[in-house]
Protein: 3-phenylpropionate/trans-cinnamate dioxygenase ferredoxin subunit
Amino acid sequence: MSFERVCALSDIKEPGSLRVELDDIDIAVVRFEGEVYALEDRCSHADVPLTDGDVEEFKGAPTIECFLHGSCFDLRTGEPTNLPATEPVPVYPVRVEGEDVYVDTESDGALPAAASN
Structure:
């Protein structure tokens, strides 16, 4: 694992998301109910930024909603929780150290990532 500092914790609204542009990928860093998550900032259905959508609970899961068609993605797994999206988005391991948020940018995006605060 290779964690890279992506932002300060205070840069992310609670609840809310922040788009972080890295060399080869855009990541949505999301805060919800005291946890921090990271996933690719791209809806698997509509190819639009997820950070333009709302962060909320949907069917018992912490999610981010695609503003265009309303699909929600589980922040823990990247799995869509409703249609029209059917494919998951990649998620990345997150580590919070004090005020700094780190994401494993070398992860393959296939592993569920929950925050460790």
In short: The domain at 3-104 is CATH 2.102.10.10 (Rieske Iron-sulfur Protein). The first strand starts at residue 3 and ends at 8.
